[in-house]
Structure formats: structure tokens, C-alpha cells
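Repro:
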Amino acid sequence: MSRSARLALANMAGGIASYASKKLKVGRGETIKGRVILVIDPKAISKLARDRDIVLVSGTNGKTTTTANLAKILALGTDEEVSTSAHGANMAAGIVATLASKPRNRFVVLECDELYLPTIYNLVAPKVIVLLNLSRDQLHRTGEVRKVAALWQKTFNRDDVTLIIDRDDPFLEFAVMDAGHVIRVTFGGRRHPDAATCPNCSTILDWTLGDYQCKCGLGSKLAQVRGGKGLTGPSRNAILAIEAARLMGAIVPVEYQNELTANPPDRTQVFNIAGRTIETRLAKNPESWRVGLTALAAPQIILALNARGIDGLDTSWLWDINYTELLGKEVICVGERKLDIAYRLSVQGIKVKTADSFAQAVSQFDNRSIEAVASYTAFQDLITTELGISAKRGVTR
């Protein structure tokens, strides 16, 4: 069978699998489509990437939002359609499904899992790679931050791609220290919670000026772009996306840039639980938990924590977070690992209770406002429940 015939067969079979998945309501069809394609044609990723202008987005926090922003900026700034995944499918199956989608646009923006990035980089030959940050996440799978940084540092040692990084993250600066083309963006520095020592030479980093300094010279290279010092994570990532779009030839109006950085997306959703409306923030890793906790304004809080595969089985990261924002609030913990987080809070002097479900937690509160922070699968469970209820009522979403 010829190379083109194998790929055509793989695409057709993947499309059938995707249709069946959506028809049977067992998934969005993206991942199963990609898996089928790769079984039939293991070289499909490199074939589908040929002669296309591809940007990869990777890092611990903000991959999905930044990918969506970059695709939108690139489309508006070039007047061309852009292929991308709207659902954060960032491993091989999801990536090949995006590349196989029609129309086969020249521009492609792909979210990429941190551990898969070296492999995908070598398969798709991207023009640009955007590195957002590195922090502790899914420790049972990725290990400590230094493991990923070292993997990237061994990978990015050529000059066939331009890397755009937040240079305030010492792990990213280490990861690109041997790369040929790097655009560094600085926001004035900020202390990294996982970087007490230098990822390059293991010397204790000097953070006294709010930015890292090391005798080995890590971080001494000047940034080409300066962003606002007070920008939060999503706004910082938006600046990186804008720089990537410009590098790909997009024209980005100043007013649109200001809109992206002034109004960063907030990953919240309002759920109706036991007759109460509860604004719930998605928190997938320690950094997003920190951001979510600082945004809480209600006097009554629900924290939902699971530790399934996609959440990360290791919950030791709970001890990396300061929960001062919860002092004085009424807090109830739910989820499969509710005891883990409840104990962590109690050590910090926060009064906390546990409940078996969101509904049970709500029943223990009074009529004052309630907010929640939920790990990835706990958040998805709420969406599934909400969709189930809506379907029974004949409501579509």
C-alpha cells in the first residue's frame, strides 16, 4: 500500500470511529479518531504536518487558553483559517486528529503535553514553540519540574525553530540555554516556588531583588520584550501568544492586545447544586489553585479534590500552597481526596469540615453566598451532572 493510500485509509477509519463515538455519546470523538489513525498509519503525524506552518504551545499552566487565543489572533491577523483543537487534546492521538481535520489549513496551533513536546517537535518541525511555564503537576507521571526542564534542555539544542519563553521562569531559561533562536519576554521577575536552586548548576539562586541571579550566568541574557509587571498568569501567556502570532506574520492591533491582557479568561462556571448557584473555579495544578484561592470572595467555600490519573495521583503538592485566603471563611472539602486537603488546611489553622458530595456540603451552609474550587475531574463531574439534568429538562447546551 502506498504512503498516501495508507494515510487516506487511516483518515477514513478515524472519521468513522469519531462519528460513532459522538453518535453513541461516549466522547467528543477526537481522541478515538487519532488513535485509529495512528494504528493504521504510525507515521501520520509527520505526513499530515508536511508543508504547514505549525506553532506548538506547552507548559504547566494555561496551554488550552493560550492555544485558543493564539489561534484566534493568528486567524484575525492573517485573514486565514487556523487548524487547532478546542478541547485540549494534547498528546499524540489528539494532535494527529487536529492535523487530520478538514479543511487542511496552512496554519496550525497545537497544544502539546510537556512530556510529549520533544517527540512532537521532531515529528512536525514547527516554526515556533511557545513555552509558558513549568511548575509541579501530575507528579506520578511527570516527576519534579527539573525532570521536564532537563528533557527540554536536551531537546532544544538546534536552530531550526524559534522558542518564545517567559524568561522569569528559571526552568524555561535553562531549557533553552542551548537553543539557536529564543525570544525572551520578561514581566519584571517573580519568585518561582519550585526554584530555590539553579536548574543548571544547583547553586542556591539569589532572589533578593525579586528576580533570580546565579553565578553560572543563568538568566543573564537580556529579554527582547517587556510586559507589564503586574500581569497575572493568563495575561502573561497572552503576551507570549501575541509575540508568537507576530512571528508567524500576523498583524495584531494594539486595542486587541490590550483587550487580551486586560481581560484574561477566568476558568469558572456557575453550577446549580441543591437549589443554589455556585461559581466554581477549575484548578488543575498548584499554580491554578493559588490563583483560584486568591479570587475567592464568598464567606462559604467548597474545595473539591480528586486524584485520578489526569489530576495527578500524588497530592503532596497540597503542601506547596498557602491557604491564607481561607482564614475566617467556612470551608467544606469534598471529593475522593477530601481528607488530604482537609488535613492540610487544619495544619494551617483553618477550620474545615468534610462532606460526601457537593449537595451535602451545600446543605451545611446558610443562605450566604458560596464559591468553589475544583480539581479537573471534580469539575468535569459537575459538568456531566449538570448536562444530565439539563438533558432531562430538554435543555441543550
